[in-house]
């Protein structure tokens, strides 16, 4: 793809501001919060875009680095967040087609080291980008070129990918009456059309899994779960040439069935309705479906939140729900007792602090998406607005429980870590490093240094807390996950 535009990128607009969530004021700087701290924020001006939407993440299996992908109005941006306090904006992939409004929102998912990007722009198709290019950016930011465009459909509202089967699903495309459009992406640069399914009409969003839940009748099938505006549909798509609807379910006060996600045991499916807060005056609401019997799903419960903000995208990791709720920001819910119909909000981070609404409205700004799947435990949030951009947040304990990780002379990031940390001196060069476990056993000594920054590989260390003594004078604490 030819570069369509030239950009002047302004590094000074990047905002780095690691800020704990104050437990008295419930603020991290200007942002309302509960138990979640701000690590950094990159505003939209840096990406030279006037709005953002979806987001996703990629972890490089070769280097262990974590990268954020932010969907923009005119393309997609790529950010190295392996040091979440000091993210590096690597560059931008421009949309293959821009309309008179210079774009529309984009959506992105990742498979096998490739990003797949779609948009509702007419003729956009599915853009393909090799993420391993991010390893070799030496003078960021740059304008990337894509690695192909699948043109079996033009516009698409969204894209879903089953990483276990290697199939992408164009969602809300201009084909198959807006039902899912199947694409074989097992060889990512060479996608192959694999049919589609129009039998249940327009799908707004979807999750596709290899089913291993409690219903023994359907073990091992490829299950498509579509949020289809006024109901949720469950379709066996194992045979792409002959998809079979298993069941569907709706719920009370339905306005717009938007999106959903399975719990990890695939017993429950969590559903958001994007417009019930707007038109029915509901507080934030999630509908939980019991999927013990795929032929006969039933409503298990409804969770009613404490804010009138509109719920948007929801994901489940472990026993937590991570929900983007526009003007309510990111909400985090504990579902460890979901069997007994107990769901409790345990944290939030509000990326739209200017909001003082007492009710929801169409087009609310704020958190469009939250990506919670990084092994580090850090999360990325994107706003749908002309403000905000990309936020990196983490549990408050990851900052507050490690006060030794930063002092006037030395700092260590990321902390906690899964593999590598970088120790940086703000004054005296680092000359000597010793690493101890919590029993006082010395595990490693690094001598004869004269460096202002030193990277440590902690991959061989077991999970736990370690003490790092620098220059025989200063001790920092590192948490290895």
TrEMBL record:
Residues 412-477 form the Secretion system C-terminal sorting domain. Keywords: Signal. It comes from the Bacteria. Transmembrane segments: none annotated. The keyword Signal applies. This is Choice-of-anchor B family protein.
């Amino acid at each position: 793809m030819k570069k369509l535009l030239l950009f002047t990128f302004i590094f000074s607009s990047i905002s780095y501001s690691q800020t704990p969530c104050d437990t008295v004021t419930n603020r991290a700087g200007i942002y309302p919060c509960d138990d979640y701290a701000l690590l950094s924020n990159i505003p939209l001006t840096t990406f030279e875009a006037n709005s953002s939407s979806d987001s996703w993440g990629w972890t490089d299996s070769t280097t262990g680095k974590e990268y954020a992908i932010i969907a923009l109005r005119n393309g997609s941006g790529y950010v190295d967040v392996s040091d979440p306090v000091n993210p590096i904006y690597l560059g931008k992939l421009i949309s293959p087609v821009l309309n008179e409004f210079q774009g529309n929102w984009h959506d992105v998912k990742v498979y096998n080291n490739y990003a797949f990007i779609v948009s509702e722009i007419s003729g956009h198709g599915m853009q393909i980008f090799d993420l391993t290019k991010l390893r070799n950016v030496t003078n960021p930011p740059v304008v990337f070129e894509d690695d192909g465009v699948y043109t079996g459909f033009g516009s698409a509202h969204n894209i879903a990918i089953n990483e276990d089967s290697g199939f992408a699903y164009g969602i809300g495309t201009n084909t198959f009456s807006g039902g899912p459009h199947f694409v074989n992406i097992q060889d990512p640069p060479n996608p192959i059309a694999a049919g589609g399914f129009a039998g249940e009409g327009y799908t707004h969003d979807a999750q596709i899994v290899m089913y291993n839940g409690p219903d023994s009748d359907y073990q091992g099938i490829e299950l498509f779960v579509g949020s289809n505006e006024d109901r949720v549909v469950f379709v066996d798509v194992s045979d792409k040439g002959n998809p079979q609807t298993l069941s569907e379910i709706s719920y009370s006060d339905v306005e717009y069935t938007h999106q959903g996600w399975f719990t990890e045991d695939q017993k429950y499916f969590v559903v958001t309705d994007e417009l019930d807060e707007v038109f029915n005056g509901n507080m934030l609401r999630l509908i939980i479906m019991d999927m013990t019997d795929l032929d006969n799903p039933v409503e298990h419960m409804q969770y009613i939140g404490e804010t009138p903000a509109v719920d948007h995208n929801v994901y489940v990791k472990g026993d937590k729900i991570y929900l983007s709720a526009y003007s309510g920001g990111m909400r985090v819910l504990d579902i460890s007792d979901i069997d007994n119909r107990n769901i409790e909000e345990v944290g939030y981070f509000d990326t739209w602090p200017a909001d003082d609404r007492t009710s929801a409205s169409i087009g609310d700004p704020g958190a469009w998406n939250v990506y919670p799947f990084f092994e580090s435990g850090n999360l990325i949030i994107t706003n749908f607005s002309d403000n905000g951009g990309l936020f990196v947040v983490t549990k408050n304990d990851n900052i507050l429980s490690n006060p030794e990780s930063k002092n006037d002379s030395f700092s260590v990031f990321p902390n906690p870590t899964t593999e590598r940390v970088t120790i940086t001196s703000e004054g005296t060069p680092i000359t000597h490093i010793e690493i101890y476990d919590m029993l006082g056993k010395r595990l490693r000594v690094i001598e004869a240094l004269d460096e202002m920054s030193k990277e440590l590989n902690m991959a061989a260390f077991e999970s736990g807390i370690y003490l790092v003594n620098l220059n025989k004078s200063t001790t920092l604490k590192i948490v290895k996950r």
